[in-house]
Amino acid sequence: MNSDSKDDNHQIVSDYFYLINKKDMQRLLNLFTDDCVIFEPFSKNQQQLYDNGRDKTHLKGKSEIESFFYIVMMASDGLQYLIEFIDDAIDTNEVEPDDIFCSPPPSIVSVLATFYGKTEGHELKERLKFHVVPRKNHVSVNIKEKYYQNSKEIKTLWIQFCSPESTN
Fold first, then answer.
1. How large is the average pLDDT for residues 146-153?
2. Domain at 53, CATH number
């Protein structure tokens, strides 16, 4: 992956956190493909997507992720966050078979996010893994513009809680 592509991938992930913090739902949804999937540990609705013995809670499509993001925006209100891009091997159990052989190959961006509460010592760590793909028919516009579009989209997002000792 060339450095421009890496920078683009990191930018869309940074934009994800920025737009949640700004509570800008329309531009946040615009970061995702129409057929996006989010695997998240918060919902009680368990759905089995892969037949490998691992339960996956997932949301599919923009209408399902929109409801989830309203809750995320409400829960993160007033929290500070720090994101750290990390090198992480691709777990092929999490990538759909068609994606492994697609051209160009999928870009996986892994992040360790730490959210700080209003009281000192209260923090939550999550590992997020973004599957970033080129946007079809993209129009380059700056994030400050009314209709933000990036050259990349998020196809899949995996969210996992981390215990403090697992992040060292």
1. 66
2. 3.10.450.50
